[in-house]
Design a protein that fits this description.
By secondary structure, the protein is an alpha/beta fold. It has helices at about 15-40, 50-60, 90-100, 120-130, 190-195, 210-215, 265-280; strands spanning about 10-15, 40-45, 70-75, 75-80, 110, 145-150, 175, 185-190, 200-205, 235-240, 255. It has a single domain (about 10-280), classed as 3-Layer(aba) Sandwich (Rossmann fold), CATH 3.40.50.1360. It has an 8-stranded mixed β-sheet with strand order 5-3-2-6-9-10-1-11. A 3-stranded antiparallel β-sheet has the order 4-8-7. Helix 6 (about 210-215) links the parallel strand 9 and strand 10 (about 235-240). The chain is globular.
C-alpha cells in the first residue's frame, strides 16, 4: 500500500482540554475555508470525539467565526437501537450542538436508528449523505472534515479489528454486527473516509500510548489496526495527541516533520518512529 507524498502533521498538546481547543480551532478554520470556497461546511464527527470538544463548541458563538447555518453536521458512526440509549449520539446532537451552538436542526443529519432496522437506517443515511454532500470525486461524497478518535484497539469510526468491513469498497455506510453483547453499529466506511478533504485524528489518554506505538511502528495492517486505512491519505490528516497518549514525547507543540516520499507505509512508520524517539 502506497502513501501520498506528504509531511506528516502530528501535534502534541498538554491535556484533554488543550486537545479539545485545538480540535475546535481546526473545526472552525476548516469550516470557514469550506464556506468561502463552497458555500457550506460538511463535517462528520465520531461518536468517540472527547466530550471536552462539545463543551467548548457549546460555549462558542459560531456566528462570529463560522456561520452556523452553513454547517451540515453528520455522525461518523452510531449505535443501532433506541435513540435514547446512553451510548447513542442523539442526546448530544439535540441538547448540545443544536441548542447551544446554534446549528439549525435541519442541518444536523443524525443516523435514525431508533427503529432498530439497521439496514434500512444505513440505507437512508447513505441517501442523505449523497443528497447533502453530493457525489464528489469518483462519485464518492467528499466531506470537508471528518473528525475521528482512535480507541485503545486502534479502531476508528466503528471499524473494529478483525471485521469484514474493510473489504467493502462499494458502500459508504454499512452495518457492523458483533457476536458478543455490543450494540450493532452503523458506520461510514473506509471508502468515504479516504475521500475526505481533511481528517483529524484525536488520540487522548495514557491507555492509548501503547497502541499508538504499535500503530506507528507496525507494517500496514488494516484488519489488525483499522486506523491504517487512512495511511494512503496521510497528506490530508492532522493528528492531535495529548501528552499522556504520546508518552514517548516531551513538551507541547508540533513534532518534527518528515518527508516520506514514495515509501511504503511500513518504512514511513520506521522513519517516523526514529523522529519521535529523537524527541524524547
Amino acid at each position: 500500500m502506497k502513501t501520498a507524498k506528504t509531511t506528516l502533521d502530528l501535534r502534541i498538546v498538554a491535556d484533554c482540554d488543550a486537545l479539545a481547543r485545538r480540535a475546535l480551532a481546526l473545526f472552525i478554520n476548516t469550516g470557514r475555508q469550506a464556506v468561502e470556497k463552497r458555500g457550506r461546511f460538511c463535517v462528520a464527527i465520531s461518536r468517540y470525539t472527547p466530550a471536552f470538544f462539545f463543551k467548548h463548541l457549546e460555549s462558542v458563538t459560531l456566528s462570529k467565526s463560522l456561520p452556523a447555518d452553513k454547517i451540515h453536521l453528520f455522525w461518523v458512526d452510531e449505535c443501532c437501537g433506541c435513540r435514547h440509549l446512553e451510548s447513542n449520539n442523539y442526546k448530544t446532537s439535540e441538547h448540545i450542538i443544536f441548542r447551544q451552538a446554534g446549528i439549525p436542526a435541519e442541518n444536523i443529519h443524525r443516523i435514525c436508528s431508533g427503529n432498530c432496522n439497521c439496514s434500512f437506517a444505513a440505507s437512508i443515511y447513505e441517501q442523505t449523505i449523497y443528497q447533502v454532500v453530493g457525489g464528489g470525486k469518483n462519485g464518492v461524497p467528499q466531506f470537508d472534515l471528518i473528525m475521528l478518535a482512535m480507541d485503545a484497539d486502534a479502531h476508528i469510526a466503528s471499524l473494529f479489528p478483525d471485521t469484514y468491513a474493510f473489504f467493502d469498497t462499494r458502500d459508504i455506510v454499512r452495518v457492523i454486527y458483533f457476536m458478543d453483547n455490543r450494540h450493532t453499529r452503523i458506520t461510514l466506511t473506509n471508502t468515504v473516509l479516504r475521500s475526505a478533504l481533511k481528517i483529524a485524528v484525536l488520540v487522548s489518554g495514557a491507555e492509548k500510548a501503547g497502541i499508538l506505538q504499535e500503530v506507528l511502528r507496525s507494517e500496514p495492517d488494516e484488519v489488525k489496526y483499522p486506523i491504517h486505512i487512512i495511511w494512503p491519505i496521510l497528506d490530508r490528516v492532522t493528528w492531535l495527541i495529548n501528552r499522556n497518549a504520546a508518552g514517548f514525547v516531551h513538551g507541547d507543540g508540533i513534532l518534527k516533520t518528515i518527508q516520506p516520499r514514495n515509501l511504503q507505509s511500513g518504512q514511513i512508520n520506521k522513519r517516523l518512529w526514529q523522529v519521535l524517539e529523537s524527541q524524547a
